[in-house]
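Attaching the record inline, Q. Sequence:
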Amino acid sequence: MRWLSNLTDPASVPDLKERVLAGEVVVVRGGFQRAGLLDQILDLSLQAVSDVIGPEAAAAVAEQGFERIHEIVPAHEIPGLTEEIYKRVNARAPQDLSILIPSVFAGVNRHYFETSPNVRFHVPFDTTRGDRGLFNGFTKKHGEGKLTAHGPHRDSWLDCPDNGVNIWIAIGRVKPGNGLTVYRNEYEGRQRYTGMGHINRDERLSEPLTFDLDPGDFVLFHTDQLHGSALNYTDETRFVISYRITFERPHFPNGHYHSYCHSGLANGPLKAAAALPALMQPSYLRSFGQRVLQKLRPSKPKRIDLAPSNNGDPRDMRVGEIRPTDSKTCVARLSENEFVSFDRRCPHQGADLAMGHVANGRIVCPWHNLPFDPSTGESPCQSLRPLAVKTDSLKADA
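Structure, as predicted:
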């Protein structure tokens, strides 16, 4: 799977729309400010800080950057602040996208867009230690990936279209340890998932793409790329706004719960009818009926099984491989003669670490890209318990 980075003039790529829809991942540098929108969104967000928290906090954020907002605004205030920014960004979405889309996709004059863009504040995980109930409550209302990390998923698993494009925009700086993950090698795969839209624990994943983004940079990728977010183990807050769009009428293979507006109507006198073209589909009526049935007969969550253990000789493993040994333990080969066994369950949300990978000598969780030190079992998140690990040395030719 190809991908383009450091693209500075996306409108000069005539087939960019087709390439993204075919699975290409594209990084556009400085695209949001070239469209004249970054400063406006920053001003809007700073005004929200002033209105919700106070003028002094807004002045401090303006000086130090949104990367340091967790040092200025208490963690328990972040959900309310995010709600306020949501309201303001939503109100601007039709106008902003009418400017942004033509600047990115040459010749595209009409599109559909999700009525509510996504505002994503990921403060360092350890700073939420005493307020995770508030953050989880926000997640129940708005979904994962806004204030809390989101495991690997395709948007269509979560009642979104399967023919769209995500525009994932850095409003503040983004690092690999707090940002987006895209599992591009799995784009054409058919991973199994639960009724809640979570990937099964026994799905093995390759190392994902991660991104270094400056404010105004953004990533373009198909809504059915397998993607998620890293658990923020950095010392910076990640502030992102993302839009979902489609070029044709949105197609909903699962539930049809999200509202999409037609851009040709949303900015004109008929804006009250902008959502109707996307709603006039059998998928909406079918999903409406399913919602009624779910309220009458709530479904029980399905059990997620772990992958079967592998009792083969660990010396047959390749360097960097992780293999389950029983229902509770797995082993990784770190080098020719160095092996480590450890708990299969990630201490964050219970992902099966046997499905993860080794990167830079670290054991990496397949769901939220969190690395663990194989010597100590510790992760960069001090508020998580360490893995129980046991280092062992074996001769490759023994």
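The chain has two domains: 3-296, 314-393. The domain at 314-393 is CATH 2.102.10.10 (Rieske Iron-sulfur Protein).

More tomorrow.
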